[in-house]
Specification:
Distance between the termini: 23 Å
Structural class: mainly beta
Largest sheet: 6 strands, mixed
Number of helices: 1
Strand order of the largest sheet: 2-1-6-5-4-3
Order of helices and strands: EEHEEEE
Mean pLDDT: 92
Low-confidence stretches: none
Shape: globular
Length: 97
């Protein structure tokens, strides 16, 4: 997942009552959570304006050590087209537990 994010990307959202900030929080959480074998991501919308894009994704059946089971999440990603390709520069999420 790390290569998709720009090194200075921002990340914000609430995991329950805990404010989650920074991509290192995200990467660490994913590593500690472990596999989510039944995860069902769906792209809901994509809006591209030349060198920027916004993508909304709904994720069902998130599971794992930290997530529990049957969790649903909503993600908003902002992308920037860079010389090496599209990179995520911002992610915000909502935990629909």
């Amino acid at each position: 997942m790390r290569p998709a994010f720009h090194p200075q990307a921002s990340f914000f959202g609430y995991a329950g009552d805990q404010l989650a900030v920074g991509t290192e929080f995200l990467f660490d959480w994913i590593d500690r959570n472990g596999p989510a074998p039944d995860i069902e991501p769906r792209v809901m919308s994509v809006d591209v304006l030349e060198s920027i894009a916004v993508v909304r994704i709904e994720i069902a059946n998130w599971s794992g050590k930290l997530a529990g089971s049957g969790v649903r999440m909503s993600d908003l990603f902002t992308f920037l087209r860079m010389p090496e390709g599209w990179r995520i520069i911002q992610k915000a999420f909502h935990w629909n537990a």
